[in-house]
Amino acid sequence: MTTRDTARSQSASQAAQAPHAASVAGTVGATSANATAADDDIEILDIARKEDTDERRGRRWFKRFSGRPFPGWLYAFLFILFDLAAVATLQWGVSLKSTRVKLSSPTVGWGFVTKMWTDGNFVLVLNALLLGLIYLILLMLTNRFWIATPVFLAAAIIVAVIEHFKVQIRYEAVLPSDLNFLKADKSNLLSFMPPGAHWTIIGACAVFVGVLIVCFLLYRMDGRSGRLLRFDNVGLNVTVRLLLILLPGMFFTLYSMQVSTVGSWAKTFATVMGDKPSMWDSVYDAQRNGPLVSFTRQLNPRIMEKPANYSEATMKKLAAKYAKEATTINESRSANMTDSTVIYVLSESFSDPSRVPGLKVNKDSMPNIRKIKSGTTSGLMLSSGYGGGTANLEYMGLTGMSMANFDSSLSSPYQQLVPSEHWVPTINQMWGAAKFSEAFHPYESSMYSRATNYVKFGFSHFYTLTGDGEGNDIIKYQDKIDESPYVSDEATYKSALEEIAKTDDNQFIQIITMQNHMPYNDWYKDNDFTAESTDPSQPLEKDETKSIETYQKGASLTDEATAAFLEELDKLDKPVTVVFYGDHLPGIYETASADTNNSLALHLTDYFIWSNKASGSSQGEKIDNSAYSSPNFFVAQAAEHMDAKVSPYLAFLTEMHEKISAMEPPVVNTIQGWDRIPEGQNIYLDSDGNPMAESDFDDETKQLLADYKLIQYDITAGKNYLKDSGFMDLP
């Protein structure tokens, strides 16, 4: 081969290799590009795997529990926990502090729990039991623990907020009568929201959101999703659920219907568990015993037994009978009661210490009132209380009805009866429009639910320390004496006198004082009153002595203030009649009260009916049969004292008082509580103050007493047949 051929051959070989090299280069480039793309896919896949792993880890965290249904013991534990949370929530609703002087210290907050082992009081358990019944019913209705629980707690939060608002505005707990308000006046609910209410609502909503979050997390953890009953047999499932709805429902209903009835299993059960009714203050009652226990106790009070012959025909006949009696009485009377201003003065705890058995005092605490009594209608009043029970005496005085006629379960008409009554005839209504009726009480208007009751009674103003909650009806003078925590009687009289003097209208005025309210803790400076036992072998204890001597000084200050008040009324150029009475003795006579033979003496206070100079012939009048009385007869006695004409109702009371001078339910020598009226026989006194037995009554007295029960039943528990009969109308 020649050199030229060799060169040509190499050139051809190189030319042939060039496309191959390009192909190889292309392949290498493509491989490199594919490798880069693959790396990107792997990175994305790793991220996706990481996210999937995280999600699966989260699922596994729940599945640790969701794979295992919650055991029964855990549901039971959670049930108790949420039930107690509801109790605590309701307790918060009524735990607002008051600025008033406390009569006692309610056990609120943690103390509501600790009193189980400090006092053996298990009212917390009673509240938890009652709420637990409601909770159980909700659980069985839904069969879903994590649905029923937030609903149950939401209801507790809503009720607690409502309680909180009502306590803030009116210092009063939610009562059964508020349900009637919801029906009649729901459009005005927003007007009862206190300032700053939105913050409370926001806080409550935040708490509920927290509840929802907890329930949702537990729901996710619960392998059975809160399903409580999982029987394969549908019929068995339905049967068990129905039983667990009906049985708790029946227990709760029967308990609520009977807990206010003395002697019932429910009342006994509640008492054993620690329920201690405190009816004078609904907030204190709810704080002390729990809102639900307090509420249920007032749902169905037994008012009085229905007379066997009660009917419309019977009541028409009775109304006609006493209309005829009224006509007979009015033939010899010339005045009209409403042509005068009548003032009722309920003097807190006022009585004569010198009448207390076994007590020796160094001087008279009531010389002025003793002198007043000697020259006008006066005597001793039989009280149903000792150391308490003010509102019951007040109720009897304003209505003419007697606690002796009520069932023993009805311990406080102001709380248990008046709020639900459709017709509440009170003596102030004889003066017509509400503008002619005013009341004064230098304390909180919420006590004994007076704020709402006095509106129902027809009073235009009820002047108190707290007023109507909107800055109105604040009692003007609030002076106190030395270290006493209460407004003086002098200041209270001054507030009333200004209102009485500034109008020429005749009015009905109610005054309820506070100066001599318990406790009696050496309030006064320069107190020279002393007290000691008449029996040297049984000396008074130091605390008893201090209380009695403090009380004596307070009574003497009342004596002076009352005399000065009457002097000012005497200067008015319009007729005024005053009915003054002490509601009960102070519960400080421990030595005397230890002897049951002193029961009657410890239930007799002082009263008088007095008229000013402008009343003319009524001044200095002293009617017959005034030595003994009870508040239900005061209005009839005042009419007789004033020579005033009467309605059929007052005619009846006049006749009743002629046969029975005073009447009250059984009395005991312990401070009046609100569990019940004491057991035993009613007390009836004759005109000489001697006890009378019902078995010894003559036929006329028995008939009058039967008529009394018919009248009282018709007004308080019956069908109000007397309402439109003219029975209450003055001629």
Any descriptors?
731 residues, alpha/beta, eight-stranded mixed beta sheet, three-stranded antiparallel beta sheet, 22 helices, globular, OpgB/LTA_synthase_biosynth, transmembrane helix
Q: Can you walk through the features of this model?
A:
The protein has 731 residues and is of the alpha/beta class. The protein has 22 helices and 13 strands. Helix 13 packs across helix 18. The longest helix has 64 residues. The radius of gyration is 39 Å and the shape is globular. This is LTA synthase family protein. It comes from Bifidobacterium amazonense. Pathway: Cell wall biogenesis; lipoteichoic acid biosynthesis.
Beta-strand percentage range: 5-15%
Q: How widely separated are the two ends?
A: 164 Å
Largest pleated sheet: 8 strands, mixed
Low-confidence stretches: 1-33, 98-105, 674-678
Structure summary, number of beta strands: 13
Could you report the average pLDDT, rounded to the nearest whole number? 86
How are strands sequenced across the largest beta sheet? Answer: 5-4-6-1-8-9-3-10
Specify the structural class: alpha/beta
What portion of residues is helical?
A: 40-55%
Number of alpha- plus pi-helical segments: 22
Global shape? globular
Radius of gyration (CA) equals 39 Å
Domain Sulfatase N-terminal: 341-643
Protein name: LTA synthase family protein
Pathway: Cell wall biogenesis; lipoteichoic acid biosynthesis
Transmembrane segments: 73-94, 120-138, 145-162, 197-219, 240-257
